[in-house]
Amino acid sequence: MKAYQADIAKFEANDTQVFGISVDSSPANAHFGKELGLTFPLLSDFVHRQVVKDYGIYSEAGGYGTRATFLVDKDGIIRHIEQGRTAIDPTGAYDACNLLTHKKAEQPEQ
What DSSP element (H or E) covers 5? Predict the structure, then answer.
């Protein structure tokens, strides 16, 4: 999360909204976000864990969502996924955002 915060300007320059989702409670997320100085929202999937289940990153045995980064475009299409330790580093997500932004800019207006 700290790395995403450090690179937040890069994402904003590509018209990208960054947010985090965890299976922790809203108060726990608020405390965590404040502790790290995050300016992007942290959402809670605490009660039903539906988001982590829908995105296929829920560990039934552990009761938690595994670490992952999803890049979802404005049409709701997943364009990039990183799971595990690489999801901590925002480089892949930023590169994917940058690529999508440039592809969109190259497309003729309809």
Answer: helix 2-6
Residue-by-residue DSSP string for 69-80? EEEE-TTS-EEE
Inside any domain, residue 6:
yes
Q: Classify burial at 39, counting beta carbons within 10 Å of its beta carbon; exposed 0-12, middle 13-18, buried 19 or more.
A: exposed
Q: Is residue 7 part of a domain?
A: yes
pLDDT interval class at 16 (50, 70, 90): very high
Q: Decide: helix, strand or coil at residue 1.
A: coil
| pLDDT tens digits, one per residue of 69-88 | 999 998 999 999 999 999 99
The CATH number of the domain holding residue 28 is: 3.40.30.10
109 within a domain of the structure (yes/no): no
Is residue 53, in this structure, part of any structural domain at all? yes
Residue 50 is given by DSSP the state H
Helix locations, 23-90, DSSP H: 26-36, 50-54
pTM of the complete model? 0.86
Q: What is the distance between the alpha carbons of residues 38 and 19, in angstroms, rounded to a whole number?
A: 10
